[in-house]
Amino acid sequence: MCGIIGYTGSENVREVLLDALELLEYRGYDSSGIAVKERGTEEIKVCKCAGRVGDLRAICELQRALTGCGIGHTRWATHGGVSDKNAHPHQIGKVTLVHNGIIENYRELIEEYHLDGLKSETDSEVAAALVDRFYEGDPETAIKKAVRKLKGTFALVVLFADQGDAIYCTRNVSPIVATLCDEGAMLASDLTALCRFTNRYFVVPEYHILKLTETELTLTDFDGNRVEPEYQTADWELNSAGKNGYPFYMEKEIMEQPRAIEDTMTNRINSGMPDFTADGVPDTLFTDCDRICIIACGTAMHAGLVAQALVKSILHMHIDVEMASEFMYSDPVIDERTLVIAVSQSGETIDTLEAVKYAKRRGAKCLAVINVKGSSIARESDYVLYTNAGPEIAVASTKAYTTQLAVFYLIVARMAHSRGVFSAEETQSFVRELQRVPQAMQKVLERRHEIHVVARKLLEAKDLFMIGRGLDHSTLLEGSLKMKEVSYIHSEAYASGELKHGPIALITQDTPVVASVTQEKLVSKELSNIKEVKSRGADVVIFIKETLAGNLEEEYSVFRLPAMRDEFMVMPASVALQLLAYYVSSDKGFDVDKPRNLAKVVTVE
Ligand code: M6R
Fold this sequence. Notes:
By secondary structure, this protein is of the alpha/beta class. It folds into three domains: 3-233, Glutamine Phosphoribosylpyrophosphate, subunit 1, domain 1, CATH 3.60.20.10; 248-434, Rossmann fold; 436-590, Glucose-6-phosphate isomerase like protein, domain 1 (Rossmann fold, 3-Layer(aba) Sandwich). The chain is built from 19 helices and 26 strands. β24 (513-517), α18 (523-535) and β25 form a beta-alpha-beta unit. α3 packs parallel to α4 and α16 (448-456) packs across α19 (570-587). The protein is globular. Bound molecules: 5-amino-5-deoxy-1-O-phosphono-D-mannitol. 5-amino-5-deoxy-1-O-phosphono-D-mannitol is lined by residues 297-300, 344-346, 349, 352, 395-397, 481, 485, 602.
């Protein structure tokens, strides 16, 4: 869950590292550090601290204009608390190292190799000590020997005091991408950090050694054979990872959604029909299966729950949505006739990745819905549909969620047509409605100040409920996750009908309720449930499809959502709920993009 950068080249190393760490900070932000080695010297200067990259920048007193090489790290603590000494890089002997992942057998290694005198409580320092123990002037041999002793997941990036401006790297599971460009050679945990320089990159294969110098990249396998890097071109614009004048990435990313949905549909609609030819996804994937199983975590799983409701109502198929972290331990019903759909923004979530591997071992075909190109889950899966949302930096997922939904609408439409459930006309009508989504979202965004007014009513709340039925409930599960993660208000999404089976006992005048009412067939029941909480003193905020029930404004705070077919109301409603959470958080003065205890990419189980 940590961010790693390595750079060797002609630019000011310290600035390249610090700028990159700021872009990578969303991967972990409890401590940060850099190590810099000036060209022609053997001294490696380390500067690190508990705190954000901003704090690091303030204390970095390394030479200002400096060329050479360096490595940097932002940490999400696993082993050892948040402290200066536990921050990376770790330095032992000639070795300076940063690590992402978990070394599971670090205790055994300390004992076996008598690694006394470690300065931190981290598993990572053990990896540094081991590389140093094996180092006799040949970096690659030392790294390989150390790696053969490690159990767990790791991306290791190493500087050796006596190896000029070279940087070495190896990995297992934890991702590293790398590139060579005009300004030098660089590697990072993800593309976000490289985007400023280039959009050409390659994924470092597992159990290989990558050596970077200013002018050259050398990739070898563990038997010493040269391997040609497989370069890819990201279609993210350079600098697309900036804030574009918005105070927070979350706001920028919420505002980008109409465009992101357009980009997700591009090349996937042909003569009004959903078409995955360009993605290489064959119709047989959708016809040769008896059941569907969606595996994902957090927001991505919530997108899966919306898909589940659509699949049940349109395709009448058996579909399960499994939390990836529970999947392998819950005896899942998976076989060759199961279509497994893995959903992930980062494509690196370890639970989802392991679940995909497990499902494949059981014979299932796996389709991944992913945002980050070339990520581990994308590579592990049989087929991939990319969401084309562009870089999502805010920890709270917004545009990744709605683009995942857009892909699901396309999948459901294609599947319904290929399985003979939808006629061509029905399919085209469904797709036409999907094409209206950007416009409906835009209408919500243009009225965002109204949502800001409503958000002010929630600022004092300690607890709140979100209630709705059917698809509204699925939408609110995500809305509620957004609220709790960025505003720290305890928020629970409940199926409204279930409320009186217990939780209504918690409703008081201090427990605001947010309701979503967008499904025509459920309006009267949902409004009755709203009355029930109102009668118990709750202030109620209602997000309602504009064409449904009138005269609510006297009793409630109401935001009317642009009308779409019921199946698509999730889209404008989700944008409204994202804005609600965003305004509560920013009005409370929180760091919206980096909520406490969280990290964007969850690479530990
Ligand atoms: O990268 P992934 O989509 O696999 O991440 C899964 C979850 O960690 C993620 O959706 C998380 O719940 C959101 N960032 C919360 O907003």
